[in-house]
Request: fold
Amino acid sequence: MNYVVFDNGDAPYLKWLKENPEGYVLNTRRSRDSQFAMIHRATCPHITRPDIIAADGFTGHNDIKVCASTVDELVTFVRGYKAIAVGIVDPCGTCNATTEPIPFNQAAKNTRKPWTREEVLILLNLYEKIPFGLFHHGNPMLIDIATRMGRTPGSVAMKLSNLASLDDRLMARGIRGLSGASALDRKTWQEFQGHQDLLVPESEALLAELITGNADCQVDVQPERIAVPSHPEGLTESTASVKVRRGQRFFRQAVLNAYAGRCAVTGLPIRELLVASHIIPWSEAAEHRLDPQNGIALNALHDRAFDLGLITFDTDLRLICSKALKDHFTHATVAQHFKAYEGKPLAIPAEAAGPKPAYLEWHRREVFGKF
Reply:
């Protein structure tokens, strides 16, 4: 049992809230026949302010409080406690403890499916390809993934939000995910971030197998849809080549999706004409190859100029042209495609982390102006 029931006095309940600010609270009626059940964050004002509730009003009268570190544990309690055949656990509208209402029924008491490492790896793959704002149960792509996994869209969205609580990039921008990440989530997250060269290709294969039944098929993940190209690829490749291809596919999708499928310089919105341009080249640093922050979505022309060191971006992400390129500014085509954008910053969606400053500093030092 990983939950604590408080039903006889508020003092121990309030002490638990103080000691577990990242936890969750189920507010429900003492009666097992009552359908009322609502989940709050432990910091929600509706279930934390004794100054507006009568003495022992949280746990001593009609209501009880059940506290746990994850939402799943509270749903498990509800299934075992309630006498009604079917019910709904609602999220608090103030603290948004869950992304959607959670249905429960007595038949499901002993059939709740635990998450597997393979499923978490698939979601970590998608995590890097979907903006945080699209982690919701209405996203058509997550609905498709959930159906194939035999889960609800809400459970998939919640798991992605749990993973978001482990992301230092989001924390640095003041974004907080749901705090119910499991031990498996944490372990797999650390492995994925620390060994991308191994786990990115594995996650690509798992995703392809989930969508097509064939780990060698290509799938194209976009923020709200998954497409399966009609042409097969890599049927006779070596194992090493397959790993490289899967890694490159992951990198391209993660980078293009981070930039909303548009060139960060010109705004060109045709994915087929875009490149996930490496800042530090693939050949230079294996440990950075698959980091989406080592990429910028550029059209093919600006990607080539970036690779050659004819352009780079300063500390404010503004485009800089090299002297060799400026020598051709009198040519109308060069002026149209480069001079017109000089000094303008990269267009980075608000939810994207953008390129890592250390990577751009390396490019300015090692590549820019060397052509």
The radius of gyration is 25 Å.
